[in-house]
Specification:
The structure is a homohexamer.
Chain A lengths: L1 E15 L5 E9 L2 E7 L14 E12 L2 E11 L18 H13 L4 H12 L1 H9 L13 H19 L4 H10 L4 H4 E2 L6 E2 L1 H20 L7 H13 L15 H22 L7 E2 L11 E2 L21
Parallel strand pairs in A: 3-5
Antiparallel strand pairs in A: 1-2, 1-4, 2-3, 4-5, 6-7, 8-9
Helix pairs in contact in A: 1-4, 4-5, 4-9, 5-9, 7-8, 8-9
């Protein structure tokens, strides 16, 4: 597959192959993620690699190597920082963030419980909070570590929750509210503006579980007549969504809504870890062992009958 | 609530209340589950309780006591075994088993993958296996421990899996097959015919994970041209569905389909544990601590605005 | 040791000794704790024991049996509830609560940090909170499970913290504040008014760690000009005082003050578990294995040279 | 000790010693294992080390350094691949594989149970399986990671099992069968033909425990009249030999034969880990900490009375 | 099987069967272990059971009930303590203790290492120690909890160690010494003279690992010229024989001899737990779940071909 | 802050900054600890870094970088080994060791228990032991890893213990003895003379817990009339001071004195880990994550009101 594009080049190292030839090993990063690359026949200015991350224009071929996608670079020119938009190289959701946000807002408008409905509206109306919620990553590196990742995760949780509400006798609005906002504390726990993703000091000292509980409690306190019992249940959903104490929830889920929010959160997080880890793995190939799920993952070889015939959506090839 | 019905009476004990009066404490069991009961003003023949479980006709009142439903027995007559149908007193699903089974069969008919479609058809055509699958409990006591429980669990897993197939790029047929049949080994691991639910000797020596893998592999071997790669993926789904080695899976899930089957299984099992534990708990009340989730569970007090207004279905009161 | 006193008699059981004689086994409870008792030569009205807990007047002897204190009852009369003050039989601190509370108030007055000093003063001025703080037990049953137990625990923590402030370069006021108030959430987590000690619904759904953080944050928000950084550090002390996530702290201690509060809390709790478990154990004897420390505990046999010569204070014999 | 031999040279790195002199650090590998080496006075062609593993002819001295054997290289010539037999440099058992295999076959011929005897004969007669069994390593890297390693491990397990059969009331044939074949699934779990040792895809998706159970079950199904109860016990031995669920056995050992197979397997594996880790450690020296047993291991300094006087066999010096 | 014998009757309870008839449930204990028993048609003096353990003469039948041996008592007379020898009813080894002890002494005489040989001789010559070693149980209740149990365990460990010394390059004398004496500290950790088996105060405060190390070190200090290095290795074997810190060894085994002593100890302990738990279980039956191995154990149904044909020794029926 | 001083330079690496300029990254070590450093504008002799650790004279500036102290080197001259005293560059306590030792000796002189008093005196009189005790580090790397570190730790433990003796009814002398000498086995477990800190062979095979118990027991055996019960309690304090089996104590603390020694040891060790980890961290900054406490640690930003106003002592800036 022919490739002509710009990337952020990182992790460059000069190595020697089994025939004694020097080559450059590097990572090419853009909004969609990263891919391993190799370059032989090094021009003089690349003989010693790059001095740290640089924006580059690359020509080459993408091909499969040991079951994973790899780029063979033919030409590579370093760009000046003026030539690029830095944000084009921050990992970012491939979905349309406005569409995703609208799906959430629509859900909130459909609430029957007037208290939760108003609470939802107030959160959306809090511009600083809502814009952070739509931009934040869902984690520093485990899953959905990209601009808009928290939004993606929240939408997925809502979609699964909708199916569950058809099966179990649950307070729909409370479940949906929790599915959407359980991780709202990440808007204060994480920072994502200075290039990389990191933790804030309040994030490290208090954690997103407590920060999220406070955000929701503070807005609920503004809703006139918000019932104390509902506030208590809501707080429990927020505090217990990590499921177990060792994952940072001071109490385990003890209501059905809290339990389901925890399970839905866990399900989408693990599915995302799988998908992100196998992003560049070809059919029949194995990922590296060292990933958030702690085991090598397998992308099945398509059985004979019509490859991808009933695979529902998405592809596993990094493009640009 | 006035109550006139027949039950299996178990766990009878004579106790003395705080005013020094003797009373009978017992459990009343029927198809729908069990409820705690108390009887004062004991007739002579009940002064020393019952000698083991007995079928009884009871008159009394159901009322709430410390947040849980309890029956105050006013009259109780022991029935002879000839007067009852034993199976009426085995816990059993409240759903219609034929309807549930049809939902599964219909799903199998919709498969696009012809190999999996034929495999599914052969399993349904194996009368002994299929009828066991529709009758077996899903566990000895943790969740869905009732006639038809395995069927209920399989249907719920399929329903959640359908929602996931809309979200993640998954092999739908493989996911649905796993969602439905991951626990098929329980038809050989558990016994449910001699009154109670228990483990068979093969169940204890091999476990339902391996037994289920064998059942599916044996039927797949009968399907002409069943692809080896598909058989391998299918076997992996069966073997890894417990998710972690310490829960009895010799390998962790390493394909997306295997991972989702594990997560869906876990989700429905935990939801069921919650619902079964809180079956008799009134709004605002707490369950006993000693249940499969290992913590007291809370059934929220309805907030002021229209009780149950948006609760989706089901009730939490034992009836007959 | 001759004994004539009133108690709450609980756990009465009729047993038969090795010579075939019937006797009554029971526990005698008063403010100071409980002691095992036996009664032979049962009068007619006690032949079948008591119907639940009763207030009794007892005459008998306290003696040592298998290394633990036991009472041999000679006479026992049941009292009517009118004859007793119920609170005399609720386990309660032996210390003077006013003196203990004064020690804390005095410490707060000595703060150099004006913000923390005012915060402390506001908490003391919040009559409902402060009187709850001076009355609450420190736990349902692990340690300091008695009226005033939280106060005792807080005073001990302060005293140890004072020694640490001489050794480590610490923010004294913050350390002392945390030593005193880390468990203030127990005033909302526990209930102690209806006879026994138990958990409230907010206590079970949110836990004392988060409840305490909220109490302190709410009062700090009332102090004009309370620095944000100080509020953050304070919140961290409250949230992390359990030390590890599996003990209910959403974050581990990451400042020196938070670390020391956690260690002091743990130290006093474990010392109290030891002392309460060995309350009735004689020198050279062993406690039961089944206690909060999870092992049998030993009260050393005094070596020959002057028993108790340098034992600092306290005794280990239940009196009345 | 003078050394003149050919090796596979791996892990070459150019370093600088404490006097500022450059030297080459490398590993010398042959059939018997590997040894650390150093080379000073580098000729021009080695100034930058080697470009990956190369076959070399080495002259130098083996000596002890910090308690471990090390080679000081004086001359080193790179060989062309035509000059060597690749298999001479794959780690391989030092025992005679035919003799070992005969010991097993002889054991099988001595079985009294005619069903197990025939099953054993069929496995030996399955040429593909049996030759794989005699060639496979017992693990990728933990212990017996060498050609013939599985055979060595099986023979050792049989030998220990023979002693146990004299002590405990056990079904000898079943115990010996399990001791020999518990790891037969490794013939399908591992690959050892393309130079290194690795996992196959079925190995990662199903694991050697289930693969081995299937191999044995498939062969037993070919033995006419093989008793179902015996097949069940045999399957249990295969499935439970890892001892605990977290080590990959779906059920724990529940028969005496299964328990002993598990314990014998564990014993030989750990002894092998010890011996392989201390292969190059001199008397009185310590191994590296980083080995399969997770701790530094000690090879005792011989006490004064006749070194090695009663050490039974083997030596700990790598030769060629 | 007709039964006429004397026992210690314990755990007597009056119960009511499913037809409402009262019966006595009890345990019958003698030197060989214990068996469950039931008695119907109670004579007047047994209507309320026994007041604690009593020596009894029993007539009845032993039969199988739910896969376990049970005695149906027809007559039972209480004996006076003068009629019995108390020690006849303390669980005790069925082996001849003198023969077992001789096997150990003979092993010690065969040592080649003169230091260990003399150390061994001194331990045997220490009459108080040696007679305690030959009488002590190996544990309070886990395995070999019987008079002579420590001796039996030591002999078994020696026998397995002999097989290992043929396989691994080990210091034979050190291995055999450790196999025999690793648990010698149990002579001071346990008490077995006052009827039951229990822990001493030094046993609880120091544990048998340290106590055993001290015993051996004290005797080695008496051997002139005992090498320091040998004393260190010996001490390491004693201290590390529990294998892991959480089992009470302050260090893990780091020499081959220490590792093998740990593995042999573990092997015999687990085999004994199996055998003792299944003592009364019939072929094809399951033990109770509640035993030291923490799982129900299975005694296989003999396959058709000649039951017990190749079972090596022992039987599983309690006799007298 | 201008800096002119001599150090041991370690961990030198040549790196390239983001503008492509080469610089040297290194660590500067002296008695007081270590600090990260960077040097640009490399003179010819430093272009390839240093060949291992070298003593150097440095001129430069200390400044804060990402919240941690860092040195920017301007000039650096390598010194010959003759020019330096090696011990000046071994990390060492900043306290006066004689003053610290006197504080302990004084405490021993104040004992009321004559047996413990004499035991203490004998330990101090054992010149080899006492001088080792005053020189040893308290650990290889976790905390107090410096000459005199064991002494510092012992003094701190004594100081905390004094406060506890005012609060709990404890045997003061036994508590103080344990607080001072619980780690005395480290004098034999660790080596600190050949430049770095390491483990001895007895240290690895027996551990400081058992070694310390032996040292104290051997000296107590020299004290005429030392009571056996006191020796037992003392031994228990020594053996159990690690608190849990998994930390190397063969028994958990079961007396109050043993429990408090364990808690005090733990408290000072953790406080030291905190202080040593944050040594170079500026106010408002975070330490590296990789330290003995296993989490990044925070040095609070001073709130507005008078920085350090009530911070008790010490500073966090490395000087010379």
């Amino acid at each position: 597959m022919r490739l002509r594009s710009t990337f952020l080049a990182t992790d460059t190292m000069v190595r020697t192959d089994s025939r004694g030839t020097r080559y450059l090993s590097l990572k090419l990063v853009d909004k969609t993620g990263s891919v391993d690359a190799r370059m032989w026949r090094l021009p003089a200015e690349l003989l010693h690699g790059l001095d740290g991350p640089e924006y580059v224009h690359v020509e080459g071929h993408a091909h499969e190597y040991r079951g994973m996608l790899q780029v063979k670079v033919e030409r590579m020119n370093v760009l000046s920082k003026d030539e690029v938009e830095e944000e084009d190289y921050l990992p970012s959701t491939e979905e349309d963030r406005i569409t995703l946000a609208d799906e959430l807002v629509e859900a909130g408008r459909g609430f029957e419980n007037t208290h939760l409905k108003e609470l939802f509206a107030r959160i959306v109306a809090d511009e600083e909070l809502w814009s952070a919620f739509c931009a934040a990553p869902a984690a520093k590196g485990m899953h959905h570590a990209r601009i808009g990742g928290l939004l993606e995760h929240s939408v997925n949780c809502l979609r699964v929750a909708r199916a569950l509400a058809e099966i179990y006798p649950v307070d729909k609005d409370l479940l949906f509210f929790g599915a959407i906002f359980h991780d709202v504390g990440k808007t204060q726990e994480l920072s994502w503006k200075e290039g990389g993703f990191g933790y804030t000091t309040p994030g490290r000292l208090q954690g997103h579980v407590v920060l999220g509980d406070r955000i929701v409690a503070a807005h609920a306190a503004q809703v006139p007549g918000f019932p104390e019992e509902l506030a208590l249940q809501l707080s429990h959903v927020m505090l217990s969504h990590q499921g177990e104490r060792e994952y940072g929830s001071p109490e385990q889920p003890k209501t059905l809504e809290a339990l389901l929010v925890n399970l839905v959160d866990n399900l989408d997080a693990r599915a995302a870890m799988f998908l992100e880890t196998t992003h560049n793995v070809a059919a029949g190939g194995w990922s590296h062992h060292n990933n958030p799920l702690g085991r090598a993952l397998y992308v099945p070889d398509e059985p004979s009958e019509g490859p991808e015939a009933n695979r529902t959506k998405g592809d596993a090839i990094a493009g640009n």
